From TrEMBL:
Domain of life: Bacteria
Organism in which the protein naturally occurs: Pseudomonas abietaniphila
Protein name according to UniProt: Uncharacterized protein
Pfam families per the UniProt record, alphabetical: DUF6555
Length: 74
């Protein structure tokens, strides 16, 4: 298994500030947007770790009121 790190993800959901921490092997902007959608209750989690999951893109997330996603190492 790859080395996992802790990340902090901040975003706005319909104008309200949200933040959460996640442990992941990699993080980039696309991953941060995906996890923000999951935290907001819009995105999907896989039932099992190896199951594929459809990740929402930035434009799709913005249609659900998710904006200003930022992330950094925690």
């Amino acid at each position: 298994m790859a080395q996992e790190k802790h990340y902090r993800v901040d975003y706005l959901l319909n104008g309200n500030y949200k933040t959460f921490y996640i442990r992941a092997s990699k993080m980039d902007n696309a991953e941060a947007w995906h996890w923000a959608t999951v935290d907001a209750g819009v995105g999907q989690l896989p039932k099992y770790r190896t199951d594929p999951v459809t990740k929402l893109s930035k434009p799709q997330a913005e249609k659900h009121g998710i904006t200003d996603v930022e992330w950094r190492s925690a």
